[in-house]
Amino acid sequence: MADVMTRLDPDTRAAARGLSDLSIRNLFIIPTIAFLIIFNVFPLIYSLATAFTDYRASTSAESNWVGLANFRELLSDPNIWRNFTITAKYVIISVTGQVFVGFGLAMLLNRPIPLKGLITTLLLLPMMMSPAVVGLFWKLLYDPSFGIINYFLGLGKFEWLADPQMALYAVAIVDIWMWSPFVMLLSLAGLSAVPKHLYEAAEIDRAGPFYTFFRITLPLVAPILMIAIIFRTMEAFKTFDHAYILSTQPTTELIAIRLYKMAFLEWQTGMSSAFAYIVLIVVVAITNIYVKYLNKAKAR
Amino acid sequence: MAEVKTKGEVIFNRAAVIAVLIALVIMLTPIFWIAATAFKPRNLATTAPPTVFFEPTLSPFAKLFTKRSQLREPVEEATYEAAPWWEKLVFDGGEQVVRNKKTGEATSSGYGNRYLNSLIVSIISTFLAVSMGTITAYGFSRFRVPGEQDWLFFILSTRMLPPIVVAIPMFLMYRAVGLYDTHIGLIILYTAFNLSFAVWIMKGFIDEIPREYEEAALVDGYTRLQAFRKIVLPEALTGIAATAVFCFITAWNEYAFALMMTSRNAQTAPPYIPSQVGSGLSDWTVIASGAFLFLVPVAIFTFLLRNHLLRGMSFGAIRK
């Protein structure tokens, strides 16, 4: 029976067995793609149309076509540029911190450490938590009068969140706490992939630890570390949850927070759609870098 | 680097162990503090210096689930004795549970409902995302799809948008079609959010299942769908489980959409807990108990999932 089936031409065979491969493929793929288009692409088209109007979702007033006015106003608004500067600063601080802490932890864990599996798992806990709940709790930890951070560091009544200079660092520290484990995880994967014989060869050549690190370990881990950096940069750029809960200062107003306020507290729907588009263009640019490096790393 | 030989290396290794332990303590202290505060009596939550040793109480949990008012005068003996045990905990904290005047039932704080909303939305959206993701991944893995790489990139790219950017038009659309503040509305959003992830991870898992298994089944007279159900699905089960837990955690932790797309009826716990901080003197023990209960499922899943974490978090990106 099986022999007969395989010898028949594909169409007849499919007909004899129910659905053809082609229709199964379409049945399996098209709903997902359609779903994603409806819930991702369609809203973007919708908001593109809104971006050229003065629509406000809080009133029933007719919206007017204003052309490029929204974009012109946004791009000439120094406050928006300040939001971008703050975000850039925040991204640099938190990603740098995560790379140092995460890669450092990975280097330590790459040695023969007892209970390594358990320790690694425990270190992963922060990144599995809800950023909003985490942000809330750090508010208690940062409290100037009864927070444990000031107590353990002996800082007295140091203001973490109310000090305009410090607040952005305080928000970044939470991000570093949450996401260093991610960098650690990727670095560990990278470190375990470094061929052992290279170290053996270095040992035979009596290479020092610095030489081994900078000439063998780092170059071989670099591609995967780069992926971690780009990934975290993209994510840090979008930061909203914990930052929104922690920040009370204009100095911590990241782009996502400004966008949220503009859209849902000030109800400048048209203007915020235009702003969202500017942000989108920046994200697409970052994403392109990401994909470029991703392909490079994959091709290796 | 695995073997330790010289004396210098032994010392170096001990130093590494100590450094790891210090790092572990630092990383876990905030979580420990959440857990500890959730079991403190109110007066010990905000002390300087911080209280580390205390007699644990369940009163924050009793308070978390009920609406309360401050006690003006001590409770009468008879009332105290007649109250259920959890209400006694509240009395001891100097508060009293607000009861419905007609039915005499304790008034709920809303946390229970929010927690339930979180469960409903996370479980259903996870189920949808994983089932759709699995079959789509199978489609991409086994059949020739024109422009396959482009489609896969499109699927991945939907995840790269900042949620706030999509939230504005979604809010307008949801309000127009009546999905605002509904469970279905959030479920759809979280499914869309997790679907791209599920497709990518599942494709990685399914690619690893040898095609020969199904081909053998096809030769034996199975249809394509039967082969998928009886051969591929069981083989992909660990992958499906790992993906499901990831999708669940993402949906469970989501804050931004829940904040913007819900108000009372369908709101989940992440926007609710912060809203209880308020501007006055907030009861941190109650907030901590809410946060603690919310973190428990994630902590459990992290342990169940530990071996799959790398693969999932790296998004299938670093897979060769």
UniProtKB/TrEMBL annotation, chain B:
Keyword hit for Metal-binding: no
Main subcellular location: membrane
Membrane-traversing stretches: 12-36, 119-140, 152-172, 184-202, 231-252, 284-305
Annotated ranges, domain ABC transmembrane type-1: 115-305
GO CC annotations on file: plasma membrane
SUPFAM superfamilies in the cross-refs: MetI-like
Membrane topology: Multi-pass membrane protein
Record keywords, A-Z: Cell membrane, Membrane, Transmembrane, Transmembrane helix, Transport
Locations listed in the record: Cell membrane
Any one GO BP annotation for this protein: transmembrane transport
Family per record: Belongs to the binding-protein-dependent transport system permease family.
Name of the protein in question: Carbohydrate ABC transporter permease
Organism placement in taxonomy: Bacteria, Pseudomonadati, Pseudomonadota, Alphaproteobacteria, Rhodobacterales
